[in-house]
Amino acid sequence: MRLLSWNVNGLRAIYKKGFAEAVAAMAPDILALQETKLQQDQRTGEMLALSGYDSYWDYSVDKKGYSGVAVYARHQPREVRCGFGIDRFDREGRVLQLDYGPFILFNVYFPNGQRDADRLGYKLDFYRDFFAYTDRLREQGRSLVITGDFNTAHNEIDLKNPQANKDRSGFLRIERDVLDDIVTRGYVDTFRALYPDTVKYSWWSYRFNARRNNAGWRIDYFFVSRDLIDRGAVREAFILNEIDGSDHCPVGLELDI
């Protein structure tokens, strides 16, 4: 099973840049999108009729043109849920969970903390409460795949200029500590597990020719619960730097389920 995750930074905009053709070339079984920036009535017929896929959506309740996640899937899940049961987070349209039986897929657009101290606090609260929720599922014996834009580079290898960004949200020690903690609790960063020394990024600023100069950050991940690693279900993890259309590129995972 080939899974891809992509922060598209506006689904309407990226459709004009060859999105459907890129998806056909990448051929995912499941495609998780973040930052669709859509409301339900803004979805076009083209979006709803992407060949070979059913689609599932979550939207921001209070703010149009903001946040939003979607999943295109060839395989029908047993159950689909929006959010994770806490209204202050669920209102922003940041989480879809699809139950496939052998695993639950979470597509998550984690908050950005750069605006101000309140927003950083919101981001940290989101991390805490979301992973408390997923911990409860793991205690029930469920296997988890958690993908999306985490809005945090974990270690110095994961961004071009770590020292210059150490006081910037996205690489603050307090944010990186959260990723340290979830790894300790049994969540595995699949790309880093398979490629511990590989320098590769998934997001570049639109400024300063950052993508051309590869001055990027790796902030898009596929984390899995450790049991999937232990039983050999993770076959491959990858980052598709060559795919344009957004300030992020797709990241991927191959599962043997």
UniProtKB/TrEMBL annotation:
What domain of life does the native source organism fall in? Answer: Bacteria
Protein name, entry field: Exodeoxyribonuclease-3
NCBIfam families from the UniProt entry? exoDNase_III, xth
Q: Where along the chain is Mg(2+) bound?
A: N7, E35, D149, N151, D247, H248
Q: Where is the active site?
A: Y109, D149, H248
Q: Where is this site: Transition state stabilizer?
A: N151
User: Is Metal-binding one of the keywords?
Assistant: yes
Cofactor note (record): Probably binds two magnesium or manganese ions per subunit.
Coiled-coil regions listed: none
This chain's source organism reads: Desulfofustis glycolicus DSM 9705
| InterPro entries to which the protein is assigned, alphabetical | AP_endonuc_1 (IPR004808), AP_endonuclease_F1_BS (IPR020847), Endo/exonu/phosph_ase_sf (IPR036691), Endo/exonuclease/phosphatase (IPR005135)
Q: Which biological processes are named by the entry's GO terms? A: base-excision repair
